[in-house]
Amino acid sequence: MSRLPPQEHPVSTAVETDVLIVGSGPAGAAAALALSTYGVPHIVVTRYAHLADTPRAHITNQRTMEVLRDLGVEQEVVARATPQHLMGNTTFCTSLAGEELGRVRSWGTDPLARAGHELAGPTRMCDLPQHLMEPILVNAAVARGTRLRYETEYLSHTQDADGVTATVHDRLRGDTYEIRARYLIGADGGRSKVAEVAGLPMRGRTGVAGSINIVFEADLSRYTAHRPSTLYWVLTPGATVGGIGAGLVRCVRPWNEWLIVWGYDVTAGAPDLTTEYAESVVRKLVGDDDLAVTITSSSAWTVNEMYAETYADGRVFCAGDAVHRHPPSNGLGSNTSIQDAYNLAWKLKLVLDGTAHPRLLDTYTAERAPVGRQVVTRANRSIRETAPVFEALGGLAPQTPAQLRADIDARKDATDAAERQRAALREAIAAKVYEFDAHGVDLNQRYTSAAIVPDGTPDPGFARDPELYHQPSSRPGARLPHAWITSGSRTLSTLDTVGRGRFTLLTGIGGDAWVRAAGKQDVEIATVVIGPGQPYEDPYGDWARLREIPDAGALLVRPDGYVAFRHPDGAPTTAGDLLADALRRILGHA
User: Fold this and answer.
1) What is the strand order of the sheet 525-530 is part of?
2) What average pLDDT score do residues 352-362 get?
3) pLDDT, tens digit, for every residue of 379-435?
4) What share of the chain is helix, strand, coil (3-state, %, to 5)?
């Protein structure tokens, strides 16, 4: 039989698209889902042959759930996730089988915090590990038009006045080719090559501490089901070396799939991650030498404290861990990544279809870089705020098991010193609410950029701690407040009236001029009129209390749910000019 001649891959012209996304993690997948929802042609490339295969990120906060609700995948996430009521008994202990030292009601499960969550929005936070979240985002994106290329590695890019040319390597075929896009999104993680090639300036440091993830299967229901939680923190000798403040046993799926985080001395290098080593760490933190355990995977990583000062270079934008690199404390990583993508996607859509000037894209850095800086700072501070728990039990210096046991037992004595120790331990554990229930960190972002039109009113600030408590506001730059309203037999959130890639104008009785003005603009604006006898009604009066303007006033809300413009009255003769001027400024035409 004659042999066929070897096939050569011809040099092809560049593949063309509007947007190239590098990376299929939370930021890249969310960008793809949003762009496909908005009808923007794009390609996603990932160097890997599959999506995430380990749990990684997991906390999915209320704002992210709002984003997923707007993008049409909320119910699928809820169906796969661990629900909020099984997340909240964050426990501090000597081991899962050992002595419990205290708990923190977390993730909105405290009765008062639960009320705050219900008042803040229509969604509920949940726990969905990254290896389950990514397929939901990617499958929905592909179904809506995303072109996805696995085993395609980004190598470099150049850009000119009209677009970006990226060079990629097909790891399956072995050839290299170019993709020509009008814009490039680098969502390629904490070692982002896109950010490196783009030369984005970074501030901070990497390799702050060493950590090990051990993913395993074991039935731990007898240690955990009576105190359901996402996180169990273990105070044991060695727990203060490296790591994220203490030993951590994290529930991946109740109560049989788990992930342990354990530290190591980063200056000495990671230990040899043998199965025997991993099993020993698992049994140490669980406190059961006879535990039947199956190790799924183990890996070493380092704690970082780094953020980008700018998220863009010309037509290249970076998102997610590419621009904010931090430990998993507070559960902020994938949430911030998804919200980065959501902020950028609608702006790209409007620039690409000619509605907005490219200057609109400058607001991406202006709005999201301060958020990235905040979450990097908060996550690393949360690690340091674990120290007082150890200090209440005898200090942070390495302790032998006997020393630690004696310090823990000392708090049980009927002495003044023991009473002070008990109080110090309670206070130290209670203070961890800044890591495990920081509702304000999740929802209190206030944007300041050219895509926000100030209304001239003084900023009232926050009435309570802005990290712990959400404070709704209709001020330009704030997320639209949530209130339950009705339309016929339907009950819906005010947040359900906005989004879907278009602007929305909310007004009330007497706001007819605003409605007419909205219909005359060159950009799509949905109108929502709320009041007695109107298309939407406010039966509980909640919207009237939250809107901060009279009935005839107007709020112009961006596609991402943030208030862009506010006016206090009906402006019967000037509404058209006011709204047109606001849109020119928001869209970068002014």
Assistant:
1) 525-530, 503-508, 554-557, 563-567
2) 98
3) 999 999 999 998 898 865 556 788 888 889 999 999 999 999 999 999 999 999 999
4) 35, 25, 40
- The Cα 142–Cα 73 span in angstroms is 13
SS3 at position 346: helix
Residue 412 has phi, psi (to 5 degrees) of -90, -5
- The residue among 133, 194, 147, 124 whose CA lies nearest residue 166 is 194
Residue 408 has a CB neighbour count (10 Å cut-off) of: 19
DSSP state of 552: T
Point out which residues pair with 446 in neighbouring strands.
Answer: 478
DSSP string of 574-589? THHHHHHHHHHHHTT-
Per-residue burial over 368-380, b = 16 or more CB atoms within 10 Å of its CB, e = otherwise? bbbbbbbbbebbb
Question: Which sign does the torsion angle of CA 49, 51, 53, 54 carry?
Answer: positive
Sign of CA dihedral 119, 123, 127, 133: negative
Query: pTM of whole model > 0.90?
Result: yes
Euclidean distance between CA atoms 279 and 556, whole angstroms: 56
CA pair distance 393, 405, nearest whole angstrom: 9
CB 122 within 8 A of CB 69: yes
Query: What are 92's strand-pairing partners?
Result: 102, 233
Rounded CA gap, 42 and 15, in Å?
11
Residue 319's nearest CA partner among 41, 16, 25 is: 25
Strands 42-45 and 15-22: parallel
CB 232 within 8 Å of CB 252: no
Sign of CA dihedral 369, 65, 23, 252: positive
Contacts of range 167-170, beta carbons closer than 8 Å, 24 or more positions apart: 168/45
- Asked if 15 and 175 count as a contact pair (C-beta separation under 8 A), the reply is no
pLDDT at 505: 98
Residues 130 and 136: beta-carbon distance below 8 Å: no
Least confident of 125-129, 205-209, 218-222, 510-514: 205-209
In a 3-state reduction of DSSP, which class is residue 573?
coil
Q: Tell me 458's DSSP state.
A: P
For residue 568, what are its two tokens? 């206090």
**Contact status, residue 68 vs residue 391, Cβ threshold 8 Å:** no
Closest C-alpha among 557, 374, 569, 416 to residue 473? 557
